[in-house]
């Protein structure tokens, strides 16, 4: 019963938070200079019509505004887009009004999730041993080197790493790994061998730094606790203490890092996908804000806010299940 009350409270808070984020994002777009017609090729396409038949031109503008709810007052537009987002009725993009946004997301979203999941797995495989080594050899050149590598991975944006990898494997070392494209004949979602390697590496380097730094700091703190000293005094082998008591406890707490990192990595795929010509969320959402495409832009805001909220909820629940001392309130 307690978990049900907690879930209801969190879901209500999530809905309020997501609605507020959508409202703020919509207001910012609404007051941005320009509009879809002035920011896209539609304006130039309808330019001659405005001179030849002003009435028809105005009628097209009115029909366009009615279709996307732009003829309502601002508060009405905000509520309309919030409702459409929460009910997953994203409507049609202004750039491609013949295809529903949800239909496009069915293909694009799994690709971005695949890249984000792969980058998280890579971060765990590399970051955990790196953090353990840095903690064991703390305040030595090994610790300093591992920490420098971790910080460097965090400091370099994913799109910069992607560009450098394209330069390396597309110009210097050609033919080793593909630097663009996704999928093969009859497969739009699954990549061919090698296509996902460079995008995953680009996205995973930053998360490797986060994981390594967290494991290092957590393990150093755990190894200073009284029960660790007691185990050492009893003659328990050092590596057994590190792996059973230190690493195990630090990995349990690391779940608080992985959840939000997964959500932000999906957003980071937007720029990386553009560089590697991958048909994920990047190609779908990259032009939404530059072209003032209200439905598509609000969809991207909703996806980010919802992912972060859901991941935080799953992290809190998982952490309480793994550590009985943590109570959900």
Can you characterise this structure?
The chain is 73% helix and 0% strand. Helix 7 (158-172) crosses helix 11 (255-276), helix 8 (197-222) packs across helix 10 and helix 8 runs antiparallel to helix 11 (255-276). It has helices at residues 2-30, 41-52, 54-67, 74-86, 101-136, 141-155, 158-172, 197-222, 226-233, 238-253, 255-276, 281-285, 294-322. It is mostly helical and 329 residues long. It has 2 domains: 2-86, no CATH class; 110-286, Orthogonal Bundle (MetI-like fold), CATH 1.10.3720.10.
SSE inventory with pairings:
Blueprint: H1 2-30, H2 41-52, H3 54-67, H4 74-86, H5 101-136, H6 141-155, H7 158-172, H8 197-222, H9 226-233, H10 238-253, H11 255-276, H12 281-285, H13 294-322
Helix pairs in contact: 1-4, 1-13, 2-3, 5-6, 5-8, 5-11, 6-8, 7-8, 7-11, 8-10, 8-11, 11-13
What are the key terms here?
MetI-like fold; 2 domains; mainly alpha
The CATH topology of the largest domain is MetI-like fold
Count of alpha/pi helices: 13
What's the SSE pattern?
HHHHHHHHHHHHH
Structural domain tally: 2
Helix content: over 70%
């Amino acid at each position: 019963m307690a978990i049900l009350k907690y879930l209801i409270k969190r879901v209500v808070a999530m809905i309020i938070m997501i609605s507020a984020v959508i409202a703020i994002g919509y207001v910012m777009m609404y007051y941005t200079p320009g509009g879809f017609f002035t920011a896209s090729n539609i304006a130039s396409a309808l330019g001659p019509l405005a001179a030849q038949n002003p009435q028809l031109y105005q009628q097209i503008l009115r029909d366009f505004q009615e279709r996307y709810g732009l003829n309502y007052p601002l508060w009405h537009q905000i509520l309309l887009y919030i409702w459409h987002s929460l009910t997953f009725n994203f409507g049609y993009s202004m750039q491609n009004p013949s295809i529903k946004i949800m239909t496009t997301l069915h293909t694009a979203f799994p690709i971005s999730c695949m890249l984000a999941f792969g980058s998280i797995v890579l971060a765990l495989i590399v970051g955990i041993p790196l953090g353990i080594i840095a903690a064991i050899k703390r305040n030595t050149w090994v610790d300093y080197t591992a920490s420098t590598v971790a910080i460097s991975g965090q400091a370099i944006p994913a799109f910069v790493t992607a560009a450098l990898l394209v330069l390396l494997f597309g110009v210097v070392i050609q033919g080793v790994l593909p630097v663009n494209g996704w999928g093969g004949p009859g497969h739009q979602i699954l990549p061919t061998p090698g296509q996902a390697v460079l995008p995953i590496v680009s996205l995973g380097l930053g998360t490797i730094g986060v994981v390594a730094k967290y494991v290092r700091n957590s393990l150093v703190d755990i190894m200073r606790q009284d029960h660790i000293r007691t185990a050492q005094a009893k003659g328990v082998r050092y590596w057994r203490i590190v792996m059973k008591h230190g690493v195990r406890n630090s990995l349990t707490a690391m779940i608080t890092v992985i959840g939000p990192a997964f959500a932000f990595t999906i957003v980071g795929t937007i720029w990386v996908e553009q560089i590697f010509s991958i048909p994920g969320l990047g190609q779908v959402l990259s032009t939404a804000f530059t072209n003032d495409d209200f439905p598509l832009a609000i969809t991207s805001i909703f996806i980010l806010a919802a992912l972060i909220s859901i991941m935080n909820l799953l992290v809190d629940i998982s952490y309480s299940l793994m550590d009985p001392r943590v109570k959900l309130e």
